[in-house]
Amino acid sequence: MALVLSAALLAWPAAWNGYPLVFSDTGTYLSQAIHHYLGWDRPAVYSLFLYPLHWQVTLWPVIAVQALLTAWTLHLTRRVLWPAAPIWFLPAVAAALAVFTSLPWHVAQIMPDVFTPLLALAMALLVLAPARMRRGDLVGLGLFATFMIAAHQSHVPLAVALLAALMASRRFLEQRDGFGRRRWVAVMPPLLACVILVAMNMAGHGRMSLSPYGNVFLLARLIEDGPGMTALRQNCPAAGWRLCDQLDRLPVASDDFLWRDDSALAHAGGAKLVSGEANAILAAAWRADPAGIVGGFFVRAAQQAASFATGDGLEAWPRTVTPWIARDFPALEADAYAASRQTAGRMAVPDWLGRLHVGVAIGGIAGCLALLARRRRDLASGFAAAALVAVLANAAITGGLSGPHRRYQSRVAWLPAFVVLLAVPPMWPGRAPARETARVWLAAISNPPRRLDSLVPGEG
Length: 460
Fold this sequence. Notes:
This protein is mainly alpha-helical. It has 3 domains: about 1-210 and about 315-365 and about 415-425, no CATH class; about 215-305, no CATH class; about 430-460, no CATH class. The protein contains 24 helices and no strands. The chain has helices at about 1-10, 10-15, 25-35, 45-55, 60-80, 90-100, 105, 115-130, 135-150, 155-170, 185-205, 215-225, 225-235, 255-260, 265, 270-290, 290-305, 320-330, 330-340, 350-375, 380-400, 405-410, 415-425, 435-445. The longest helix has 23 residues, at about 185-205. The protein is globular and about 75 Å long. The two termini are about 35 Å apart.
């Protein structure tokens, strides 16, 4: 019941909207499994996850399951970082996250973005605290991590970065018990996810690759930044690349290059055809301006790290989502979607709430840095490091390789604050039980003490 209540609290934006939140990519994720095709731009794993939940009837079960999986991951993290807290502290934590962070806005959306921060927590649990979890939870979390890694292209490098950082951090932690015989639980999810993606791409695209057309995204990035455009101008028309005939349409913003129907990419034959020549263009760009490519990567990553806002992409999507809902779902579901606040253009995060989320996110990062500054070899330091690595790696992967978008960083912005929320209370002087800690907090708020030592339970 605590998990169910926590899940309900985390799904409140969908209830307020009157329908699950959607994004431009939602239509593709819905249609892949329904119409049996593999899109060039994203894996079909999340689409296969969606299908047995909506069964072309309603999308509400998807939100329920995403909320429950989120609550379960939060519960496992609470049990490791704050073992003295009873299970009924979980709804209180969920309520705080539901108001003060961006988490519920991703839980309530038909997108795999909700799994990005949950993957960071899962990898931290599998690497840092396997001995503190039940065998069933450990196996279930390993399978869940495998799914999350395969659900989005950016999750593969994120999982590798997290695994490397967490493995390195283990030698500095005191809690190393039980990891040797359970190391496979942490290592297997990235390996299994890679096998799944390669097999799927081999079957669907005939390419043995994790991301068969991922070079097109990098090409779009370098054309906008300049090195890619320099390579095209220096080598065209002699190189005979398809984009040589489209130089008058370039350069453009990477999103316009990738998604506009009248873009140079579309006129050159589409992503699949251009992908065959993209590696040659990328190599020419590297030879022409390696410093520009490296510098552009770090600039974009820094821009992404500083760019996050709750509610990015909450506008209506009449071209990319509405046709799929109208075609593949019953009239009753289509009517509910049409009547939602988002479809009507009335769904937006209040400015004061967005500013609150930004403040909490910045405070969480500062709190994690403070936890690391203690130089203590405990799990709090390990999870703080995992949260910061997730934030930085997410910015580098999405901003540096694709392009800055506020929603990319918004999906992980809540993670450091959550770690601080669970890691700090057990450090209370005297390590009071959770109920006593809560009583002392309430007493301190209602009657502020003159001396800090009077806050210590049993001593003041």
